[in-house]
Structures
1.
Amino acid sequence: MLRLTEALKALPGVGEHTAERLAFYLLGHRNNLEELNRALSGARELGFCSVCGVITDLDPCPICSDTGREDVITVVERPSDVFLFESFSFYKGRYHVLGGVISPLDGVGPEDIRLDALIRRTEAGEVKEVIIALSPTVEGDATAFYLYELLKDRVRVTRIARGIPTGAELSLADPVTVKEAFLGRKEME
């Protein structure tokens, strides 16, 4: 029991009490424990797509292998960002996972993220647009600007808009968000 609790506690966001509750639940529901064990064992077979960098059990991944996808690449920081976009079902392009963002304070430079692979993908001339979809942080903005400078002469480079979330009160938004929403405005359709 202690070993299971300690293993669960090592997961992000799981503290002592949550780990204990999960351990007792799993021990009380052996079928769930066996299914979790199979899923964890299967996770050992997962790797990263050699083209886009997403977590997959096939190489290249099903997204990169899909000939029906548009010749547009959305650049994201983490593999989980790809799954987020895919869950929306509106985007039919391809992806490129950087595996991080440029952060000099953390010792992460351009050579530490997957920029060379992205440049190679754009050199073939088949990519019509690169959409930068990085978090609006100092590091995300710096990485976006760096990418723009690298790619602007090869391909169209755009960035996802920032602004007010749907259903939010305008008066509750911070000034930077309101400014970004204002500057990212588009024609009404």
Note: The chain has eight helices and six strands.
2.
Amino acid sequence: MSKKTKIDFKLSKTGPCTVYASDLDGNAEIVHPKIPLVILGEGQKLELSATAILGRGLEHAKFVPGLAYYRHLLEVKSSPEIDKIIHDSKSLIKPEKSGSKWLCDLNEAEVDDIEKMEKDSVTQSNEILFVIESYGNMDAKDILAKAVDALSENLDEFEKAIK
């Protein structure tokens, strides 16, 4: 492993105190310095040596920078009662009306309420909502860009293997 992918940290504290991530001493910026690590009582001491390692999600799940998932958007028949539920929804996207149907993202409770009013009024559309939730160490747009690069590399390797 190269020096660029491995950083050592040390810490030594005596209580009473709260030990924070910012107390780690090493040659790197602490991304979330205000995270408490431990509360030390009177007479307690903590000595810690830690190593931060840069890795990829293919190597181990601990290196995954976030969560990605998708779901189908819904097509919902319009009516005054249903329109109120759709307008009051706290969905990730703004609902769009096309003719007599809505294209929207609803939670299960809202779908159940609509289907109680009018059975078969909710169907899946051909459109999907793709969500990337970052754990905070990378921006979601960077996660997507890196994933596209990795997929491109994998496809190049696959193409070479089948020729």
Note: The chain has three domains: 3-54, 67-131, 133-162.
